Amino acid sequence: MATSMGSINPGNELAGKVALVTGGARNIGAATALALAQGGAAVAVNTRVSRDDADKVVAEIRATGGQADVFMADIADAGAVKRMVEAVIARFGKVDILVLNASVRKETPFLDLSYDEWRSIMAISLDGSFHLAQACLPSMLGAGGGSIVTLGGMQALSGAKRRVHGSVAKHGMVGFTRALAREFAEQNVRVNCVAPGQMDTIRAPGRAARADPKTTIPMGRLGEAREIADTVRFLCGPAASYITGQTIHVNGGVMMF
């Protein structure tokens, strides 16, 4: 699981930009924060509870001369999001890039799924995205444009046993992405979704064991967090200036479109 900045090519295509990455303390979020910093962006690393891990990400960015800070907030809480975005703008001056990565991955049989658990997943993935986009878009519009990248998943299209709430939430993220892309294209705000496949990341306790990737993934291996991070970095940069409303599937060939 490579998340260090040394695994991602340096550059300056994002110099002068400010990025806010939710769920930025671990796994894909941490790798994305590092990748955007390596591209030259100042990075606001959001986490709800994982302060120590977020501090490590920030320390790694600063060690190579980058700018970064930790911003603690529960993104399901509209007031907390508003205060966090205000703090990011006070620290860095604006928000140009928003990466909506935070999510909770739970596995529960549908007939055992409580409404409270259902709502907890929707609150982070969908409500959180709503709160953050509304809070950050004024800054992007004031700066003449920006980029929003949402993190989806294969289960949005394929479905997944014991994860109906996660599948619905991720499918909702695709609709959210496309609607925002349509509404803000003329204002130079691009909105895209990255849908990871099976990744070599730290898994929550109790999740089902993975199948052998050599038999289930055409490329024969799990994906690395940096491979998602590199895709996000590309979408946030000038090389993707004519890309909006798209879902980019990074899954080793498991699903092809």
Would you give an account of this structure?
- With 257 residues, the chain is α/β, with parallel strands linked by helices.
- Helices cover 42% and strands 14% of the residues.
- It contains eight helices and seven strands.
- A seven-stranded parallel beta sheet has the order 3-2-1-4-5-6-7, with helices on both faces.
- Helix 2 links the parallel strand 2 and strand 3.
- The longest helix is centred in the middle third of the chain and has 28 residues.
Which regions are unreliable across 5 or more consecutive residues at pLDDT < 50? 1-7
Helix tally?
8
In whole angstroms, the N-to-C terminal distance is 27 Å
Strand arrangement within the widest β-sheet reads 3-2-1-4-5-6-7
Q: Any idea what the radius of gyration is?
A: 17 Å
Overall pLDDT level? 92
Topology pattern, helix = H, strand = E: EHEHEHEHEHHEHHE
Q: Number of DSSP strands?
A: 7
Any idea what the shape is? globular
Class per helix and strand makeup? alpha/beta
Largest sheet: 7 strands, parallel
Helix content: 40-55%
